[in-house]
Amino acid sequence: MNPDALRGRVAVVAGATRGAGRGIAAALGEAGATVICTGRSSATGSGGSDYDRPETIEETAELVTRLGGTGIAAQVDHLDSDQVRWLAARVRDEYGHIDVLVNDIWGAERLKGSPAEWNTPIWAHDLDAGLRILRLAIDTHLITSHHLLPLLIDRPGGLLVEVTDGTADFNASRYRISVFYDLAKVAVNRLAFSQGHELVPHGATAVAITPGWLRSEMMLDNYGVTEDNWRDALAPNRGEGYPTAPEGFALSESPRYVGRAVAALAADPDRARWNQRSATSAEFAREYGFTDIDGSQPDSWNGHS
Predict the structure, then answer these.
(1) CA distance 166 to 96
(2) I need a surface site. Which of 25, 236, 253, 300 has the fewest CB within 10 A?
(3) Does the pLDDT of residue 305 top 60, yes or no?
Protein backbone atom coordinates (compact mmCIF):
# COMPACT_ATOMS: atom_id res chain seq x y z
CA MET A 1 0.00 0.00 0.00
CA ASN A 2 1.07 3.57 -0.65
CA PRO A 3 1.80 4.77 2.92
CA ASP A 4 0.34 8.19 2.13
CA ALA A 5 -2.66 7.11 0.06
CA LEU A 6 -5.06 8.06 2.86
CA ARG A 7 -2.94 10.57 4.73
CA GLY A 8 -5.23 13.25 6.14
CA ARG A 9 -8.34 11.09 5.85
CA VAL A 10 -10.40 10.24 8.93
CA ALA A 11 -11.98 6.80 9.30
CA VAL A 12 -14.20 5.25 11.95
CA VAL A 13 -14.01 1.47 12.18
CA ALA A 14 -16.93 0.32 14.30
CA GLY A 15 -16.11 -3.07 15.74
CA ALA A 16 -12.32 -2.77 15.51
CA THR A 17 -11.35 -4.87 18.52
CA ARG A 18 -10.47 -8.05 16.65
CA GLY A 19 -11.01 -10.04 13.46
CA ALA A 20 -11.92 -8.21 10.27
CA GLY A 21 -12.40 -4.93 12.13
CA ARG A 22 -8.84 -4.95 13.45
CA GLY A 23 -7.56 -5.96 10.01
CA ILE A 24 -9.43 -3.09 8.35
CA ALA A 25 -8.21 -0.54 10.90
CA ALA A 26 -4.64 -1.81 10.45
CA ALA A 27 -4.77 -1.58 6.65
CA LEU A 28 -6.17 1.94 6.80
CA GLY A 29 -3.23 2.72 9.07
CA GLU A 30 -0.85 1.27 6.49
CA ALA A 31 -2.23 3.85 4.08
CA GLY A 32 -1.68 6.70 6.55
CA ALA A 33 -5.26 7.31 7.73
CA THR A 34 -6.39 8.55 11.10
CA VAL A 35 -8.52 5.68 12.42
CA ILE A 36 -10.97 5.88 15.32
CA CYS A 37 -11.18 2.29 16.57
CA THR A 38 -14.37 1.48 18.46
CA GLY A 39 -15.63 -1.52 20.34
CA ARG A 40 -16.69 -2.72 23.75
CA SER A 41 -13.42 -4.31 24.90
CA SER A 42 -11.17 -1.68 26.44
CA ALA A 43 -8.07 -1.87 28.60
CA THR A 44 -9.38 1.03 30.69
CA GLY A 45 -13.19 1.00 30.67
CA SER A 46 -15.70 -1.35 32.27
CA GLY A 47 -17.82 -3.69 30.20
CA GLY A 48 -16.66 -5.77 27.26
CA SER A 49 -17.82 -8.02 24.48
CA ASP A 50 -19.79 -11.24 24.76
CA TYR A 51 -16.58 -13.15 24.01
CA ASP A 52 -14.58 -12.42 27.18
CA ARG A 53 -11.37 -12.36 25.15
CA PRO A 54 -8.13 -10.42 25.78
CA GLU A 55 -8.08 -8.21 22.65
CA THR A 56 -8.76 -4.51 23.20
CA ILE A 57 -9.44 -1.44 21.10
CA GLU A 58 -6.27 0.12 22.53
CA GLU A 59 -4.21 -2.69 20.99
CA THR A 60 -5.85 -2.03 17.64
CA ALA A 61 -5.20 1.70 17.86
CA GLU A 62 -1.55 1.05 18.74
CA LEU A 63 -1.26 -1.26 15.70
CA VAL A 64 -2.68 1.45 13.43
CA THR A 65 -0.09 3.92 14.68
CA ARG A 66 2.74 1.40 14.42
CA LEU A 67 1.85 0.79 10.78
CA GLY A 68 2.04 4.46 9.88
CA GLY A 69 -1.41 5.89 10.62
CA THR A 70 -2.86 7.54 13.69
CA GLY A 71 -4.91 5.22 15.87
CA ILE A 72 -7.46 6.45 18.41
CA ALA A 73 -9.35 4.09 20.73
CA ALA A 74 -12.95 4.88 21.71
CA GLN A 75 -14.93 2.46 23.84
CA VAL A 76 -18.46 2.28 22.46
CA ASP A 77 -21.32 -0.21 22.70
CA HIS A 78 -22.98 0.23 19.31
CA LEU A 79 -26.26 -1.12 20.63
CA ASP A 80 -26.47 1.91 22.90
CA SER A 81 -27.71 4.90 20.89
CA ASP A 82 -26.53 7.38 23.52
CA GLN A 83 -22.98 6.03 23.36
CA VAL A 84 -22.91 6.26 19.56
CA ARG A 85 -24.36 9.78 19.75
CA TRP A 86 -21.48 10.65 22.11
CA LEU A 87 -19.02 9.15 19.62
CA ALA A 88 -20.45 11.29 16.82
CA ALA A 89 -20.17 14.42 18.95
CA ARG A 90 -16.57 13.62 19.86
CA VAL A 91 -15.59 12.99 16.24
CA ARG A 92 -17.35 16.19 15.14
CA ASP A 93 -15.56 18.23 17.80
CA GLU A 94 -12.11 16.75 17.18
CA TYR A 95 -12.14 16.14 13.41
CA GLY A 96 -15.24 17.78 11.98
CA HIS A 97 -15.75 15.14 9.31
CA ILE A 98 -15.52 11.42 8.47
CA ASP A 99 -14.14 10.19 5.15
CA VAL A 100 -14.70 6.48 5.77
CA LEU A 101 -17.19 4.68 8.02
CA VAL A 102 -16.84 0.91 8.41
CA ASN A 103 -19.74 -0.98 10.01
CA ASP A 104 -18.07 -4.20 11.16
CA ILE A 105 -19.98 -4.72 14.39
CA TRP A 106 -20.87 -8.37 15.00
CA GLY A 107 -20.19 -10.06 18.34
CA ALA A 108 -22.46 -13.08 17.78
CA GLU A 109 -19.88 -15.70 16.86
CA ARG A 110 -20.66 -17.81 19.91
CA LEU A 111 -24.40 -17.30 19.57
CA LYS A 112 -24.39 -18.81 16.07
CA GLY A 113 -23.09 -22.04 17.65
CA SER A 114 -20.62 -24.68 16.55
CA PRO A 115 -21.12 -26.66 13.30
CA ALA A 116 -22.92 -29.36 15.29
CA GLU A 117 -25.61 -26.78 16.14
CA TRP A 118 -26.04 -25.42 12.62
CA ASN A 119 -29.21 -26.13 10.65
CA THR A 120 -31.32 -26.03 13.80
CA PRO A 121 -34.84 -25.02 12.64
CA ILE A 122 -36.34 -21.83 13.96
CA TRP A 123 -38.84 -23.63 16.20
CA ALA A 124 -36.01 -25.53 17.91
CA HIS A 125 -33.61 -22.57 18.08
CA ASP A 126 -33.08 -20.60 21.28
CA LEU A 127 -35.28 -17.58 20.53
CA ASP A 128 -33.48 -15.16 22.82
CA ALA A 129 -30.12 -16.10 21.29
CA GLY A 130 -31.53 -15.76 17.79
CA LEU A 131 -33.00 -12.34 18.42
CA ARG A 132 -29.74 -11.16 19.98
CA ILE A 133 -27.91 -12.26 16.82
CA LEU A 134 -30.16 -9.90 14.87
CA ARG A 135 -29.66 -7.07 17.33
CA LEU A 136 -25.88 -7.42 17.28
CA ALA A 137 -25.71 -7.75 13.51
CA ILE A 138 -28.37 -5.32 12.30
CA ASP A 139 -29.44 -2.89 15.03
CA THR A 140 -25.83 -1.94 15.71
CA HIS A 141 -25.27 -1.02 12.05
CA LEU A 142 -28.47 1.02 11.88
CA ILE A 143 -27.69 2.93 15.08
CA THR A 144 -24.15 3.64 13.92
CA SER A 145 -25.19 4.87 10.49
CA HIS A 146 -27.93 7.05 11.96
CA HIS A 147 -25.52 8.97 14.16
CA LEU A 148 -22.33 8.98 12.06
CA LEU A 149 -23.44 9.33 8.44
CA PRO A 150 -24.20 13.05 8.88
CA LEU A 151 -20.44 13.47 9.37
CA LEU A 152 -19.76 11.57 6.13
CA ILE A 153 -22.18 13.39 3.82
CA ASP A 154 -21.23 16.98 4.65
CA ARG A 155 -18.88 16.91 1.64
CA PRO A 156 -18.72 14.66 -1.45
CA GLY A 157 -16.56 11.55 -1.59
CA GLY A 158 -17.46 9.71 1.61
CA LEU A 159 -17.32 5.90 1.80
CA LEU A 160 -19.53 3.59 3.88
CA VAL A 161 -18.45 -0.06 4.11
CA GLU A 162 -20.79 -2.73 5.45
CA VAL A 163 -18.96 -5.92 6.45
CA THR A 164 -20.83 -9.21 6.26
CA ASP A 165 -20.43 -12.91 5.43
CA GLY A 166 -21.19 -13.86 1.83
CA THR A 167 -22.00 -11.65 -1.12
CA ALA A 168 -25.56 -10.78 -2.05
CA ASP A 169 -25.44 -13.23 -4.97
CA PHE A 170 -23.96 -16.05 -2.90
CA ASN A 171 -26.41 -15.65 -0.03
CA ALA A 172 -29.44 -15.26 -2.29
CA SER A 173 -29.47 -18.94 -3.22
CA ARG A 174 -27.98 -20.53 -0.08
CA TYR A 175 -29.24 -21.17 3.43
CA ARG A 176 -26.64 -19.90 5.92
CA ILE A 177 -26.45 -21.79 9.24
CA SER A 178 -29.83 -20.76 10.72
CA VAL A 179 -32.77 -18.50 10.01
CA PHE A 180 -31.32 -15.88 12.33
CA TYR A 181 -27.77 -15.97 10.96
CA ASP A 182 -29.06 -16.14 7.40
CA LEU A 183 -31.27 -13.10 7.89
CA ALA A 184 -28.48 -11.15 9.58
CA LYS A 185 -25.98 -11.64 6.77
CA VAL A 186 -28.46 -11.01 3.98
CA ALA A 187 -29.67 -7.87 5.75
CA VAL A 188 -26.20 -6.33 5.97
CA ASN A 189 -25.73 -6.72 2.21
CA ARG A 190 -29.07 -5.04 1.72
CA LEU A 191 -28.02 -2.21 4.04
CA ALA A 192 -25.22 -1.34 1.63
CA PHE A 193 -27.73 -1.31 -1.21
CA SER A 194 -30.36 0.80 0.55
CA GLN A 195 -27.92 3.23 2.16
CA GLY A 196 -26.11 3.54 -1.15
CA HIS A 197 -29.38 4.71 -2.67
CA GLU A 198 -29.68 7.40 0.00
CA LEU A 199 -26.03 8.47 -0.24
CA VAL A 200 -25.97 9.13 -4.00
CA PRO A 201 -27.34 12.69 -3.75
CA HIS A 202 -24.50 13.50 -1.35
CA GLY A 203 -21.75 12.12 -3.58
CA ALA A 204 -21.03 9.25 -1.18
CA THR A 205 -20.67 5.51 -1.78
CA ALA A 206 -21.85 2.43 0.12
CA VAL A 207 -20.36 -1.03 -0.47
CA ALA A 208 -20.82 -4.42 1.18
CA ILE A 209 -17.68 -6.51 1.55
CA THR A 210 -17.14 -10.05 2.74
CA PRO A 211 -13.84 -11.67 3.68
CA GLY A 212 -13.21 -15.29 2.84
CA TRP A 213 -12.25 -17.87 5.46
CA LEU A 214 -10.82 -15.46 7.99
CA ARG A 215 -7.89 -16.29 10.24
CA SER A 216 -9.31 -14.28 13.12
CA GLU A 217 -7.87 -14.54 16.60
CA MET A 218 -10.69 -16.93 17.53
CA MET A 219 -10.11 -19.09 14.45
CA LEU A 220 -6.37 -19.33 15.10
CA ASP A 221 -7.02 -20.27 18.73
CA ASN A 222 -9.47 -22.94 17.60
CA TYR A 223 -6.69 -24.68 15.67
CA GLY A 224 -3.95 -23.93 18.19
CA VAL A 225 -1.82 -21.88 15.80
CA THR A 226 -0.75 -18.28 15.25
CA GLU A 227 -0.58 -16.14 12.15
CA ASP A 228 3.10 -17.06 11.86
CA ASN A 229 2.52 -20.83 11.72
CA TRP A 230 -1.12 -21.11 10.65
CA ARG A 231 -0.37 -23.72 7.97
CA ASP A 232 0.51 -26.17 10.74
CA ALA A 233 -3.23 -26.49 11.33
CA LEU A 234 -3.44 -28.44 8.06
CA ALA A 235 -1.01 -31.14 9.22
CA PRO A 236 -2.69 -34.56 9.76
CA ASN A 237 -2.46 -36.34 13.12
CA ARG A 238 -1.28 -33.24 14.93
CA GLY A 239 -1.45 -34.89 18.32
CA GLU A 240 -1.67 -31.59 20.18
CA GLY A 241 -5.27 -31.71 21.31
CA TYR A 242 -6.38 -29.42 18.47
CA PRO A 243 -8.42 -30.40 15.40
CA THR A 244 -6.82 -30.62 11.97
CA ALA A 245 -8.17 -27.91 9.71
CA PRO A 246 -9.96 -29.02 6.54
CA GLU A 247 -8.20 -28.66 3.20
CA GLY A 248 -10.04 -25.42 2.43
CA PHE A 249 -8.18 -23.70 5.25
CA ALA A 250 -5.21 -23.48 2.89
CA LEU A 251 -7.11 -20.69 1.10
CA SER A 252 -7.89 -18.76 4.28
CA GLU A 253 -6.90 -15.12 4.59
CA SER A 254 -5.55 -12.86 7.28
CA PRO A 255 -7.77 -10.01 8.51
CA ARG A 256 -5.40 -7.57 6.80
CA TYR A 257 -6.52 -8.84 3.37
CA VAL A 258 -10.08 -7.53 3.71
CA GLY A 259 -8.57 -4.44 5.32
CA ARG A 260 -6.46 -3.76 2.26
CA ALA A 261 -9.60 -4.11 0.17
CA VAL A 262 -11.23 -1.31 2.16
CA ALA A 263 -8.09 0.84 1.98
CA ALA A 264 -7.78 0.37 -1.78
CA LEU A 265 -11.43 1.25 -2.25
CA ALA A 266 -11.11 4.35 -0.06
CA ALA A 267 -8.10 5.50 -2.10
CA ASP A 268 -9.88 5.01 -5.45
CA PRO A 269 -11.17 8.37 -6.74
CA ASP A 270 -13.63 6.42 -8.87
CA ARG A 271 -15.00 4.39 -5.95
CA ALA A 272 -18.58 5.43 -6.79
CA ARG A 273 -18.62 2.72 -9.47
CA TRP A 274 -18.90 0.22 -6.58
CA ASN A 275 -21.94 1.92 -5.04
CA GLN A 276 -24.59 -0.52 -3.75
CA ARG A 277 -22.50 -3.50 -4.82
CA SER A 278 -21.45 -6.54 -2.82
CA ALA A 279 -18.01 -8.10 -3.32
CA THR A 280 -15.36 -10.28 -1.67
CA SER A 281 -11.92 -9.23 -0.53
CA ALA A 282 -10.51 -11.44 -3.32
CA GLU A 283 -12.51 -9.58 -5.97
CA PHE A 284 -11.08 -6.29 -4.77
CA ALA A 285 -7.58 -7.82 -4.71
CA ARG A 286 -7.87 -8.76 -8.36
CA GLU A 287 -9.22 -5.31 -9.21
CA TYR A 288 -6.64 -3.27 -7.30
CA GLY A 289 -3.65 -5.64 -7.32
CA PHE A 290 -2.93 -5.85 -3.58
CA THR A 291 -2.02 -9.06 -1.76
CA ASP A 292 -2.43 -10.58 1.67
CA ILE A 293 0.46 -10.16 4.11
CA ASP A 294 2.14 -13.32 2.76
CA GLY A 295 2.04 -12.07 -0.84
CA SER A 296 -0.81 -14.35 -1.94
CA GLN A 297 -4.28 -13.53 -3.27
CA PRO A 298 -6.46 -16.22 -1.64
CA ASP A 299 -10.06 -16.71 -2.72
CA SER A 300 -11.80 -19.26 -0.54
CA TRP A 301 -15.15 -18.45 -2.16
CA ASN A 302 -13.93 -19.74 -5.53
CA GLY A 303 -11.32 -22.22 -4.35
CA HIS A 304 -8.13 -20.75 -5.76
CA SER A 305 -5.27 -18.40 -4.91
Answers:
(1) 34
(2) 236
(3) no
